[in-house]
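Researcher: I need the complex structure. Ligand is zinc ion. Inputs:
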Amino acid sequence: MLPIGSIIFRGATEMTYTCPVCGFQNLPYPPLDYEICPSCGTEFEYDDARRRHVELRERWVHDGAPWHSIRIPKPYAWNAWVQLLNAGFGESVPLDVSTSFSGSFQETEGSVPESDVREIIVSMR
Ligand SMILES: [Zn+2]
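Model: Output:
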């Protein structure tokens, strides 16, 4: 998996950015300028102007790390804990969760591949 803050080049214009709060890796825009992360709901330069990323992450985890956006569908097989681990935020994953990965995922109707989330966010502009 890619380290935090890495940029994936899939072509000249298809960059993705990683959310510094929850580790979501398909943000189409940098985590700046009041962009809102569909995964954790952080509004960049607003929420994170007042609280540190680690605080925002802890609050999100405390709430059960739900998929935030109601407009953007939850990606297929999306799992907040896996996402946090992949982003190097494993210390934020509650112990009782990290020791009991079942390997099964709850799918919601209309789930899309995570890579498509980027396109959906862009298309909503
Ligand atoms: Zn996020």
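Model: Summary of the prediction. The pocket of zinc ion is lined by residues 19, 21-22, 24, 37, 39-40, 42 (CB under 6 Å).
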